[in-house]
Amino acid sequence: MVAADLPRTRRPAEAVAMTNRIALVTGAASGIGAAIATRLAADGASVALLARRRDRLEKVAAQITETGGTALVVPADVTSEESVAAAATEVHDRFGDLDLLVNNAGLMRVVPFADGPLDDWRRTVDVNLTGVINVTHAFLPALRRSAATRTTDLINVSSIAGERINPGMATYGASKAAVSHLTRTLRAELAGEGIRVTDLEPGMIGGTELADSFPTELQSMVNDLRTTLPAVPVSEVAELVSYVVSRPRNVNLPRLIIQPSKEV
Ligand SMILES: NC(=O)c1ccc[n+]([C@@H]2O[C@H](COP(=O)([O-])OP(=O)(O)OC[C@H]3O[C@@H](n4cnc5c(N)ncnc54)[C@H](OP(=O)(O)O)[C@@H]3O)[C@@H](O)[C@H]2O)c1
């Protein structure tokens, strides 16, 4: 075959309709989670929004419903098994079986390990890792039932920090390394059932509250970096998730990195 025989245009893979899909996004009160939830709802999915702050979730839900989307506010703490179990019941009662779970809730502390209060390190692991385990465990029965008949996705938002050696981010990086490992192993365990699993590793993303609890000096360093790189906007992460979940049922993107072009 010569070049002239090749098709001039490649037919894009047919995107799967998002209408009728039932999604839950954790950490949907702000930043990446709010953007993903809003985008999935705009694509046609019914979306449950989970985080601790009810008022912030209600604002995101109002934006979704004002534009004709369907949203359910589910205030919960991912570190609490009981809270997550109650959320699972509420989502099931309102929407039925979930077929799209985005574990996105997380927090970051940036302090040299020796200086950080032990409670901060425990909290980082509790939210970033145990939270993913709690939520995945609670919703897995629904995901399994869904996968028997329809496209089903589990997406865990990890971080490039899970692979990099960043002084000040030992526990955050360790929690994200664990999330990525958990995700890749879950993919191996669940692929046979048709559950698509994606480990999503963002670099520096702008428009989020992740650095809001940092000391002022560190916060302004992060803000400077976000401006000069510039950081990837949350809408691009949402766009990527929208692409991943709308692939034909037999197509899975197991691991994705998204970061600013100038971030190394
Ligand atoms: N921004 C970045 O550059 C970047 C880069 C790589 C990875 N990430 C990851 O992306 C994810 C989202 O972060 P973001 O940047 O969008 O930050 P963010 O704006 O601070 O969002 C974090 C979300 O998690 C929720 N959350 C925190 N603790 C929770 C808990 N115990 N239970 C339930 N929800 C909880 C927060 O809502 P409530 O406070 O209301 O609970 C909030 O909605 C995180 O996993 C983060 O590690 C971010």
From TrEMBL:
Highest rank taxon of the organism: Bacteria
SUPFAM superfamilies, A to Z: NAD(P)-binding Rossmann-fold domains
Ranges where the Ketoreductase domain occurs: 21-208
Pfam families xref list: adh_short
Gene Ontology MF terms: oxidoreductase activity, acting on the CH-OH group of donors, NAD or NADP as acceptor
UniProt GO cellular component terms: membrane
Entries under SMART domains matching the protein: PKS_KR
Keywords annotated in UniProt: Oxidoreductase
Family, as annotated: Belongs to the short-chain dehydrogenases/reductases (SDR) family.
PANTHER family: DEHYDROGENASE/REDUCTASE SDR FAMILY MEMBER 7B, DEHYDROGENASE_REDUCTASE SDR FAMILY MEMBER 7B
Protein name, per record: Oxidoreductase
Lineage: Bacteria, Bacillati, Actinomycetota, Actinomycetes, Kitasatosporales
